[in-house]
Design brief:
Layout (H helix, E strand, L loop, with lengths): L2 H11 L13 E4 L5 E4 H10 L4 H13 L7 E4 L2
Parallel strand pairs: 2-3
Antiparallel strand pairs: 1-2
Helix pairs in contact: 2-3
Length: about 80
């Protein structure tokens, strides 16, 4: 399934899901609570493509994505 299709389905069918603008390609699916599931590696890679170092990308993700609302509406899959 194409990523934009996944994001569309989540937005239209999962009222409580949080979709981060610019990170739609990092969504890997939805969980049992209809929350968007994001891949941590894809998020870090996305930030690095935007010019951050790996350390900057990790710190940015932890503060600006993970820290947004303590996980309500989204899940970060770490691996």
């Amino acid at each position: 399934m194409k990523q934009n299709t996944k994001s569309y389905l989540i937005l239209t069918h999962c009222d409580d899901a949080v979709i981060f603008h610019g990170l739609e390609d990092c969504i890997t699916g939805i969980d049992q609570n209809n929350y968007a599931v994001y891949d941590s590696i894809k998020i870090i890679d996305k930030f690095m493509q935007d010019g951050m170092t790996d350390e900057e990308a990790i710190e940015y993700m932890e503060y600006n994505v993970v820290g947004v609302n303590a996980g309500n509406g989204f899940v970060i899959h770490y691996h």
